[in-house]
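Why do we care about 3D structure at all? Because function follows from shape, and shape follows, mostly, from sequence. That is the central idea of this module. The next example makes it concrete: a single protein chain, its amino acid sequence, and then its structure expressed as tokens.
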Amino acid sequence: MNNSVANTVRLLWAGLRALLVLTVVCGVLYPLAVTGVAQGIFPDKANGSEITANGKVVGSELIGQRYDLPLKKGQQTAALDLKWFQPRPSNGLGTNSVNTQYKLILSGATNRSGDSKELIDAVTAAKAAVVKDNSVPGHPVSPADVPADAVTSSGSGLDPAISPAYAQLQVRRVAERNHLRVAQVEKLVEQHTDGRILGFVGEPRANVLQLNIALKQLVSGA
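And the structure:
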């Protein structure tokens, strides 16, 4: 009996010591070490890849933003502010209808199939809008020139970048709305287009937020 109790106490004490040691190692020392290494080697990425403008954080390289006009009375959907470069559609999971206390960013794909009528109708309407918004006098946009990322959302619905083709499609409209030369805006797109990672991973892309920050600086100095 006494041996049984002693063995039980010994096992419980060993388990408690293991719990305490693992808690300190895995719950304190390891997170501190990982955080320290991350802050020392790549602090920008460890802090959320923040983008600053005029000393203020205005967003992240990893999350897209919309550029809309203020809602007018009676409007349910804000109109695009066409003086800015526009991102991909951000349909994702739609609007937040579960928790209305907080303005949540919902990430996810629509998961519609290629023959979905809803998807086909949405893409058709988006293409017509892109053609209309980006056609300027003397330079109409052909529907055949509209790239896929201009009319479809990404898998997350929060893609911060657009293809160089979509950025180039918006150049004349942005130039006209901001009273800039087309060559100035084209140079801006070229300067803010990143190539494939390591030369072969992914696709060339332009971060819309960084592009619009540079556009604002260009307009201010024009």
